[in-house]
Amino acid sequence: MRGIGLAANNARKTHCKNGHPFDEHNAHIYRNRARICRACRAAYSNRQYHAKRERMKAVSLLLAGGVAVELLVDVDAVMGVTARREDG
Predict the structure, then answer these.
(1) Helix (H) or strand (E) holding 28
(2) Collapsing DSSP states into helix, strand and coil, what is residue 33?
(3) What is the mean pLDDT of residues 53-80?
(4) Do 28 and 41 form a contact (C-beta atoms < 8 A)?
(5) Sequence-ordered alpha helix ranges (H) in 1-88
(6) I want to staple 62 with a disulfide (CB 3.0 to 4.6 A). Which of 15, 46, 67, 87 is the partner?
(7) Could you tell me which residues come within 8 angstroms of residue 31 by beta carbon, excluding any fewer than 6 positions away?
(8) Distance between CA 16 and CA 1 in Å, rounded?
(9) Whether the Cβ atoms of residue 30 and residue 36 lie closer than 8 Å to each other
(10) Residue 20: helix, strand or coil by DSSP?
(11) What Cα–Cα distance (Å) separates residue 7 from each residue in 2, 11, 30, 32, 58?
């Protein structure tokens, strides 16, 4: 068995935090040996896709209603979406 460090604890995990198994069909393993659950990643991508479509639909409706483009600079703030920032 491996040690007691962070990497060892993650290596012992057999399921993701949502209960999907880390098997050869569901886990994607990156070059740095990090694993990601394909089912969770697909669900996340689907949520992001539909959220973006909703934002774009809102922008189209606002533009069709005669709202000036300058007012749509921060659509995410109007829609209540918080942006993630990469610090570094």
Answers:
(1) strand 27-29
(2) coil
(3) 74
(4) yes
(5) 6-11, 38-64, 75-79
(6) 67
(7) none
(8) 20
(9) yes
(10) coil
(11) 9, 6, 14, 12, 44
Report the predicted TM-score, pTM, of the whole model to 2 decimal places. 0.63
Q: How far apart are CA 43 and CA 19, in angstroms?
A: 14
Q: From 27, 46, 29, 30, select the one nearest 38 (Cα to Cα).
A: 27
Among all chains, which residue has been given the structure tokens 């992001």? Answer: 48
- The stretch 42-71 carries a mean pLDDT of 85
The 10s digit of each residue's pLDDT in 3-46 is 888 888 888 899 999 999 999 899 988 888 888 999 999 999 99
Domains of the chain by residue range: 6-79
Of residues 32 and 47, which shows the higher confidence score? 47
Q: Report pLDDT for 84.
A: 52
Tokens of 63: 């533009």
